[in-house]
Write a structure and sequence with these properties.
Length: about 325
Amino acid sequence: METVLEKLETETTTRITDKVRFLLVSKGSWGNSKTIKSSTLNLDPINEREPDFSDFSYSDTPKPKTDPRWVYVSKYLLSSAHFNAIQKSDELLGFKLDRLAVPSPLRGARMIPIKNLVEADKLLTAHVAERKALIDTWFESGDYPKEIENSKERLGPRFNIEDYPSVEELRRKLDRFSWRWFQIGPADLQEVNREIFIREAEKNEAQWKEVGEEISRMQRLMMQELVTNLADRLKQEPGKRKALRADSFNAIKEFLCGFSAKNITEDKDLERLVDRVQQLTEGIDPETVKTSDVLRDKMEKEFTEIKTNVDALVVAGPVRRVRF
């Protein structure tokens, strides 16, 4: 019977960990809000005594009180187009990286297929220059002190100059941006204790099996959503014609282009359907589909059949994120 160690040795090239690398991005930021203590809000105190209802009119009905412990209020510190631009740039980078990634079992780290690693690294390198340019523009403009004065006017008595870092300190916070690639695997315990090594190896195999199942399920769900949407758009009812936009085709094509790199679990069933959709949409112009009832009917029948096949692949039940 094959031992755990032999299994690990024979399946090394097919393990998920050999097909991905983890990406950890670290960036400096500044919290543009501050909690206001409820004790400073002039809330009516709670009346701990039971009200006396023996003699009262509706006009004397006790007003409900607010428990300050149940109130959470925060204030914005700065209204800055420059700061917003930096945040939006970071968010856009995150969106682009997420499109290259597959579900990760490590909180805070993206799992990037090796086929997408170079593209992801190029995005990060380009972002460094873009982010620095946005930061330079902000502080060279001299707008930061003016924005603080504007906040003073807007916040009134809630303004506190101590909430705002100096230009130098804020710049140090924002200038921090780095990333690192790393790989994970079972701890090297074979030379320490064989029993512990085998136990941890089995645990590791079980965890990565769950990760693989989740990746496949997420890919299938995405395919299901895209195919269902396009099949619905293509459907023609008597006297009613649904709008068919190029976006529906573009979303499908984007998924098809990225599928090969993300198919690290080698999902053959989904791969066959992806190939079929690829052949069906190859060279198809959405504008032609809009104007040709014959082509539209043909496409609608094909995608309805593909939808049925994709539906059969999607296992019922909620998607759960596997964490190590």
